[in-house]
Amino acid sequence: MIGRLNHIAIAVPDLDAAMAQYRDVLGAAVGAPQDEPDHGVTVVFIELPNTKIELLFPLGDDSPIASFLVKNPAGGIHHMCYEVEDIRAARDRLMASGARVLGSGEPKIGAHGKPVLFLHPKDFNGCLIELEQV
Q: Which of 54, 83, 130, 132 is catalytic?
């Protein structure tokens, strides 16, 4: 059902410093910050030959990333995103198997302009999973 790894998301306490580290120290291609108000985050994508890294920074006090950073002040891996061909079919199959979909269960438009859903980390070995329709 899942396809390729689309990205690994890392919550960061200092977006500018993280961007500089990936660009200047690791030599990666770092995109421009983009605000995603529906998700409460500012994101920056780092393009790698085989996947992407998504840097996440809180956008507003109600951001889920703000609460993540309270628990993890140095930052850390927030989620992994896998591609799926049909997000609603994937959702239905997962829910039928007992997996919990976060939020209303309806896909939202993600940072790539495509429908996304998140799966409860307690159902996936402590890892928050994002599904993105491609």
A: 130
